[in-house]
Amino acid sequence: MSRTVLAMLVVLAFVATIVAPGALAAVTPAPKHPGNHQTVAKTPAQHEEAAEHAKKMATYHKGMAKHHKSMAAEHKKLGHTKLAKHHMTIAKHHTALAKEHTAMAKTHKAMAKPKKK
């Protein structure tokens, strides 16, 4: 790599560290994944444990939906003249992910409810 290219990369990295944090400052942080539930519930206690895990997963997916909605909103704000198309594409992507996570939250919420006999 030539010195000119290396110098340009250093300057670009420096500028990115200054500009990027402010550009996406209002983004809601992604929640921590609660882990996976691997056992098949056979006893009432196991069913209760599975329901608790489903509640945690519903909360996780709600948080992820909120995170992706905030990412979409920030990308919509970043519509610079040359990058507007790119930011709108990324915003649509995050909006779609938010819808998926919202649907998953509803599914897990339903799974957490006790089954009627």
Set down the secondary structure blueprint.
Blueprint: H1 3-23, H2 44-77, H3 84-112
Helix pairs in contact: 2-3
Helix content: over 70%
Q: Count the E strands.
A: 0
Please, how many helices? 3
Radius of gyration: 21 Å
- Estimated share of beta-strand residues: under 5%
Runs in which pLDDT lies below 50 for 5 or more consecutive residues are none
Q: Describe the largest sheet.
A: none
Terminal-residue CA separation: 70 Å
**Average pLDDT taken over every residue:** 83
Structural class: mainly alpha
What series of H and E elements makes up the topology?
HHH
Specify the overall morphology: elongated
Describe this structure in words.
- Helix 2 packs antiparallel against helix 3.
- The longest helix has 34 residues.
- The protein is mainly alpha-helical and 117 residues long.
- Helices cover 72% and strands 0% of the residues.
- It starts with a helix and ends in a 5-residue tail after the last helix.
- It contains three helices and no strands.
- It has a domain of 73 residues.
